[in-house]
Structure formats: C-alpha cells, structure tokens
Write a structure and sequence with these properties.
Blueprint: H1 2-10, H2 12-23, H3 35-48, E1 52-56, E2 63-68, E3 75-81, E4 101-103, E5 106-108, H4 112-133, E6 139-145, H5 155-161, H6 163-166, E7 170-173, E8 177-178, E9 185-187, E10 189-201, E11 207-208, H7 218-229, H8 250-258, H9 263-270, H10 281-290, E12 295-301, E13 311-312, E14 315-324, H11 330-343, E15 350-357, E16 360-361, H12 367-380, E17 385-387, E18 390-393, H13 396-399, E19 407-409, E20 413-414, E21 425-427, H14 428-446
Parallel strand pairs: 3-6, 3-7, 7-19, 8-20, 9-17, 10-18
Antiparallel strand pairs: 1-2, 2-6, 4-5, 5-21, 10-14, 10-15, 10-16, 11-13, 12-14
Length: 448
C-alpha cells in the first residue's frame, strides 16, 4: 500500500481542494439552500472516479448513487449525506462557515465533519487506488442522501424502491471520530429516535397577563405535562418505555470495559465539573452507549424578546427527542407517549411526529468490522476504540439492517469537531490519514 499512500501524500492538495469546494456550498436541507448545487458537485466527483452515477429522485431531495466495478465479486458500499445543519448562530463562528478556512492544521466549515470530510475521503481513496493500480480490489457503491439532517425522511422510500442499488456485502457508515488521545473510534451501530413536538393551546389569542388568574396558561400546562414524563433522576416515566430494552451480553460488557472515553478532556472542553448523575467509568460508558434518552431540544412560548412584555401566551411548544436502543420501536414509543399524556389528563396536548428512526446494530464479530479494526491498528499504530453502538442516531436500519447488510462507522472527525455547533472542524492530517485508511480497508476487505 506504500505506493498508494505516497500518491495520496503527493496529491493531498487536490483532495483538500475537493473538500473545500464542497464545504463552500451551503447545502442546508432544512432551508432548501444549495441542495441542487451540492448534489451536482458530488455527481461530478463520482464522474472524476469514472463511476456509474444516478441522481435518484425521491419525494424529497434526491439520493446520489454511484458504482465503480472492481476485480472481485465482493461489494462495499459507503453511506454519506450531502446536506448539513444550518450555520446559526453565525456570530459565534471564528471563521466564515462556508469558506473552508484552514488554520492551525484544521479546516473550519459547516459540514466538514458532518459529513463532507468523510464523503470526500472515501471518494479520494477510490481515486488514488485507481490512479496507482488502475482498478479497484472490489466493487464500490456510494449512497449519498440529501436529508440526513432533517431525519432522512425519504431514505426508506429510496431503499424500498431500489433494493438492487443498496445491495452490498458490507457498508461503511457516514461518521467517525478520534478520542482526545488520538485513538480512532470504530462504531457498530446507532441509536434510534422518536422526535416529536408537543403543542399545548389555550385561548385563541395572546392576552394581557392580568388575565392569568382566570385564564389557563398553556406554558404552565405544558411544563406540568413534561414533569410527568421524566423525573429528576433521569428515569422516563412513560409506562412500557423500557419494556423492549435488551440486557447487555457478556461480549458487550467486555466491549464497554475496553472502550476508551476521554472523561477529563470532555469535561474540560465543555467547562463542566462532572457528568450527569455523577457517573464515571464503566457506568458512564454503559449509559452513554446503551441507555435510551428523553431530551428537551427546545421550548417556545409567549414573549422572549428584549425587555418585558406582560403577556399570557395562547400557545406553548416543546420539541423532544427520544434516543432509542435495540429493540425499541419509535412508532410504539410515540403511541406510549400518547397513552401516557391521555392517562395523566393531557388529552388536549397535540403530538406532531417529526422524525422516527429505528435503532440498528451490527454484531461485534463480522468480516467488515474485523477488517476495519485490523487496518486501523496497522495504520495508526494504536488499537482503535470499538463502540458496540454510537450514542448518536442515523438511518442505518433503512440502508443496512433491513437488508441484512453489516455496517461499521469510521471517519475523520475528532472529539472537538463541534458537529452541529459553531466552528465545526476536522484536522487536515486526520483527513489525509482517513483517505489512506479507506484505501487500505478496500484491499483488505476484498480478501475476507
């Protein structure tokens, strides 16, 4: 592989420029900005690597499909997305969010870590392999959607309609990060999600707050309803919520013990003194990976502008995400939430479903995981941290587990990449090494 690594080093400026160009497109799906431009830019990269390519329509933004044939019957797919989160709050960025500025060895841009850095690293790995060896050791597929940041609303539609495009022996998933000590993380699954908005309505108009003694305030009512859902010890009080949660296997318990989690660095980076419930060590790691959550993402009601306004609001809203673990089903969780609110006298509170994704997990022992773990240790000279599941969520089930395809996550981010936050970044050296890593994995996995 040294000849391919040398080619990557000699052409790294080209690959960095590919990444910068893609990051300069503000492809924000939530705001329908730059989506067509970004899709066509990704299509041009697939053309650059001589791939068969399609812009596959869905009821939303299209899915980009690419295929490059190799000299073995094995097929490896890459799942990525070309959409990014909104850049707000812009005033907290130290660099323009859509310029791809490189400073102190890092590239700063919205989407550079989530997920354009990983996408370009994979395209670049295929390109470098082709230039040096003229052909790939296996067939490669690219599945690049445009709605991951808004819940992958139509990815299931794509995979149901085009199962032949999804078909593969294994899939390398979109993300991957390094711990504070530089150790590469390898993840074998994702949590599911039930994302909902609760709406409580009162009078048909905002009123003077003097009426609060005789007119119910929906903001208070919503807060009282929320208080029935979770207690101060982080226990979700919805009846049946934990019924499908599986016991950890001995293999998973061992993986938790071996998992490296940079507790001190994480707390220091966040300006905190301790984790939730005072957790640390294996208990902290087990909760992070294997516990479901109920999180308030945002609450809005009444007047929140500058100065005072004595108002009795007519409406209150809260957005909640439930992160789910195998075998929890997001549709069932929403149904249980409805029953819970009704049972506690909150039949009037509306539930708006905003995103439902199933959890997904790949067994710890499978050829793709073994290949990635082996090559990562060889290239980085460090044994990677193997996470049985990521604490994050993605549509992995719709592309992989639904079809029996094992999936493993590895990528070019770091523990301070600031995904979804100002000053999102990756280290340029990690990006270049990530290209080499994918190239080596292709060769190794083809033989397994």
């Amino acid at each position: 592989m040294e000849d391919i690594y040398q080619y990557i080093e000699e052409h790294k400026d080209v690959y960095i420029q590919w990444l910068r160009e893609l990051c300069q497109i503000p492809s924000v799906a939530a705001q329908n900005r730059g989506m067509q431009e970004a899709a066509h830019k990704v299509m041009s990269y697939i053309e650059e690597i001589n791939g068969e390519r399609q812009l596959v329509p869905t009821s939303g933004f299209p899915v980009i499909y690419g295929k490059i044939n190799g000299n073995s019957p094995k097929t490896l797919s890459f799942y990525n997305h070309y959409d990014v989160q909104p850049e707000e709050p812009v005033d907290l960025w130290n660099y323009p969010p859509f310029e791809g500025v490189i400073d102190d060895g890092k590239m700063f841009a919205r989407g550079v870590a989530d997920n354009k850095g990983n996408l370009i690293a994979r395209l670049a790995a295929v390109h470098a392999y082709q230039q040096v060896r003229n052909e790939l050791p296996l067939t490669v597929k690219f599945i690049v959607e445009g709605e991951e940041e808004i819940g992958s609303i139509h990815l299931g539609e794509f995979s149901d309609n085009y199962p032949e495009l999804v078909e593969a022996d294994g899939c390398i998933w979109e993300f991957g990060y390094r711990n504070a000590d530089g150790t590469q993380q390898v993840s074998l699954g994702v949590k599911g999600m039930a994302y909902v908005e609760l709406v409580c309505r009162g009078a048909n108009t905002d009123m003077h707050s003097a009426n609060a003694v005789v007119i119910e305030n929906p903001a208070w009512r919503l807060l009282w309803a929320l208080n029935t859902i979770k207690d101060q010890y982080e226990n979700v009080k919805i009846e049946g919520f934990y019924d499908e949660v599986l016991e950890l296997s001995q293999e998973e318990k061992k993986a938790i013990q071996e998992l490296v989690y940079s507790e001190e660095e994480m707390l220091s980076n966040l300006g905190l003194n301790s984790f939730l419930l005072g957790l640390e060590g294996d208990a902290l790691k087990e909760r992070l990976i294997f516990s479901p959550t109920c999180n308030i993402c945002g609450i809005t009601s009444g007047y929140t502008g500058e100065g005072s306004k004595t108002v009795l609001p007519s409406e209150a809203r809260v957005k909640i995400d439930f992160r789910l673990v195998p075998n929890q089903d997001p549709h069932k969780i929403v149904s249980l939430l409805r029953k819970h609110l009704d049972k506690n006298g909150y039949q009037d509170i509306e539930i708006i479903q905003m995103g439902l994704e199933k959890p997904a997990k790949t067994p710890l022992k499978n050829p793709l995981a073994e290949s990635i773990i082996t090559i990562t240790e060889q290239l980085t000279k460090k044994k990677p941290t193997v996470m049985p599941m990521s604490p994050g969520t993605g549509p992995m089930y719709e592309i992989c587990q639904k079809f029996g395809i094992p999936s493993v996550s590895i990528g070019v981010g770091n523990f301070q990449s600031n995904n979804h936050a100002p000053n999102e970044n990756i280290k340029v050296d990690d990006f270049i090494e990530g290209i080499k890593l994918i190239a080596a994995i292709m060769k190794d996995y083809a033989k397994r």
